[in-house]
């Protein structure tokens, strides 16, 4: 398994990207969730309350948790710079997982890295 | 997607289970990892240092993180009671992910739930 946890395969084509201005809220903690996002360009901050969980750049994925467990958003996502996002619907997500095991492993790797980072922060 | 995050499919057959006596260490933080485990019977505590992360019962999975990201064990696993474990090798894990998208989703759901629990504990 490779270490690369980027999702450039989803942002490299001529996929319609959703622009968000710097400072814009992409989703809020507690929102219902219908899609995950891959960052095509720009930087995004993930925070719970006022605590920054992580800052993400191009080819990173976020918003996958709510899609996986059907719970409301566990954190808030804010555009640090102007960003372009590729949205992946729940249906597309399930298709990708079922058709491309490599995609599933990449999502698992992202979750595992976040858990390790969280455990280190608070351990 | 169902809420059921158990892995009973892996423990229901006549699969060889590995017995561990109450108090026995299944793996230690920092160990190299070559397999994940599904609990066939008994209870297992996952801890980092002296801090209990979670306690798991039959049909739960643990030890999947190190297999996903090829890092050393991030926590220690100890048998609370006498337990029977089904070991899943990295090769078997990759086979399950590639052949059964439902398995991949279940593993993702376990990781997402642990992240939510961790964020709640420390949020």
TrEMBL record, chains A, B:
Source superkingdom: Bacteria
GO CC annotations on file: cytosol
UniProt xrefs under Gene3D superfamilies: Jelly Rolls
SMART domains cross-referenced by the UniProt entry: cNMP (SM00100)
Domain (Cyclic nucleotide-binding) ranges: 13-114
GO molecular function, one term: DNA-binding transcription factor activity
Alphabetized PROSITE patterns for the sequence: CNMP_BINDING_2, CNMP_BINDING_3
Record-linked CDD domains: CAP_ED
Entries under InterPro entries matching the protein: cNMP-bd_CS, cNMP-bd_dom, cNMP-bd_dom_sf, Env_Response_Regulators, RmlC-like_jellyroll
PANTHER family according to UniProt: CRP FAMILY TRANSCRIPTIONAL REGULATORY PROTEIN, HTH-TYPE TRANSCRIPTIONAL REGULATOR ARCR
Protein name: Cyclic nucleotide-binding domain-containing protein
């Amino acid at each position: 398994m490779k270490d690369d946890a980027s999702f450039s395969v989803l942002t490299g084509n001529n996929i319609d990207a959703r622009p968000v201005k710097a400072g814009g809220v992409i989703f809020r903690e507690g929102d219902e969730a219908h899609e995950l996002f891959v960052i095509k360009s720009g930087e995004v901050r993930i925070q719970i309350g006022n605590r920054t969980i992580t800052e993400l750049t191009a080819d990173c994925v976020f918003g996958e948790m709510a899609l996986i467990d059907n719970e409301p958003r566990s954190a808030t996502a804010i555009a640090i710079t102007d960003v372009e996002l590729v949205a992946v619907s729940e249906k597309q997500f399930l298709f990708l997982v079922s058709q491309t095991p490599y995609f599933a492993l990449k999502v698992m790797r992202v979750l595992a890295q976040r858990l390790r980072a969280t455990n280190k922060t608070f351990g």
